[in-house]
Specification:
368 residues, alpha/beta, 3-stranded mixed sheet, 3-stranded antiparallel sheet
Length: 368
């Protein structure tokens, strides 16, 4: 059972076009078929949920879980808490968008359309390793945040850890619940196979994503006291922004290691190790638990194949990556006129006044 294949199938459905901004009310009531947006002028009344409304909410939740095409155990975990489906959808979108952002200048730009994604997940490329890591990291991050935001029934804020030398600290606020999140994601992933190298590699890369999340946890504090003094501090744990997680995983992708399989004589189980035969250009370094690993060399991604649409027509930056992305085929140059706001000034009170500036710019795209 693996996370990337269960999370990423829905990615392209939500990423087909430009993502529109979501208002606070829209976000709050997303997925609620019987809710209406409030204007703020309604009289205050108490509206208890009826049994029909609760039943409708449960059915809607189950429907989302079923649409995610989860395995039997994963679907059961999704259904047992109304907040899980929403969190899974958030993790899908967040992981896919971050992947596309990190690879926006690469030949493979994290294309997740159905047939390309399915082919990639069947192979053990370094790009596949990144997909597994970013998807497990996305779910871990989203679940921990959902707990602290009060969107889950089975978890709340992080409990106070054992902190040494706390002095005048007092534990408060609402920390991101990484403890519950890790437990949930590990159960969601299932146990690794001891016989199949590919299964061990995928499981290893999933854990790398979770470890990057854990390593980025920081203790955030707020001071309390007279006249701004810090006689008492309220502290809580907070995860790093997910963009920072994506950046670290991209760095691990760049230094990922090709591996093979050996048998542990003591336990009889398979281990991940450097390839048996030395390969030119590849390191014989024994992979650490924090390294991304892969078993198949990646294709060039230059031309259309089962793994990507190629780079024909891709936008590039003349002095930065056109030579690399266009794979030596050269690039086309188009000139266009664009109008953008400029020379903006803040006016009292309370708006920004801008002029409209027109300029000509050149756009570079890879030749066929």
């Amino acid at each position: 059972m693996f996370l990337a294949a269960s999370l990423l199938p829905g990615a392209d459905a939500s990423l087909g076009g430009v993502q529109q901004p979501v208002t606070r009310h829209q976000e709050q009531y997303a997925g609620c078929s019987y809710c209406t947006l409030l204007t703020g002028n309604e009289p205050l009344t108490i509206l208890p949920l009826t049994s029909e409304m609760e039943e409708a909410a449960v059915k809607a939740h189950y429907k989302v879980c079923d649409r995610l095409k989860l395995e039997k155990k994963q679907r059961r975990m999704c259904r047992r808490d109304p907040g899980v489906a929403e969190t899974l959808m958030e993790a899908i979108s967040m992981s896919a968008l971050e992947c596309q952002y990190q690879f926006r200048f690469e030949r493979w730009n994290c294309t997740l359309e159905g047939r390309y994604r399915a082919s990639l997940l069947k192979r053990g490329f370094k790009e596949t390793a990144f997909l597994y890591a970013i998807s497990s990291a996305g779910l871990t991050h989203a679940m921990a945040k959902a707990c602290s935001a009060g969107r889950m029934e089975r978890c709340t804020c992080d409990e106070a850890p054992d902190l040494e030398n706390r002095e005048a600290w007092q534990w408060g606020g609402c920390g991101d619940n990484l403890k519950y999140s890790n437990k949930f994601v590990k159960e969601f992933l299932g146990k690794k196979s001891i016989k199949d190298l590919r299964a061990r590699v995928d499981f290893h890369n999933n854990l790398v994503g979770m470890k990057v999340i854990k390593a980025g946890v920081e203790t955030t504090c707020k001071c309390h006291g007279v006249s701004g003094s810090c006689t008492v501090r309220t502290c809580w744990r907070q995860l790093s922004p997910f963009h920072e997680i994506g950046k670290q995983l991209k760095q691990k992708y760049e230094t990922s290691l090709k591996v093979g399989s050996t048998t542990n004589e003591a336990t009889g189980e398979g281990d991940i190790s450097p390839p048996k035969k030395s390969i030119p250009g590849h390191s014989d370094q024994i992979p650490r638990t924090t390294d991304l690993v892969y078993i198949d060399d990646s294709p060039s991604f230059c031309l259309m194949s089962r793994y990507s649409p190629g780079t024909s027509g891709r936008k590039c930056y003349k002095d930065k990556n056109c030579d690399s992305i266009c794979c030596g085929r050269g690039h086309n140059t188009q000139s266009r006129v664009v109008t953008r706001p400029c020379q903006c000034q803040v006016r009292w009170c309370c708006y920004v006044e801008c002029k409209q500036c027109t300029q000509r710019e050149e756009v570079y795209t890879c030749k066929d």
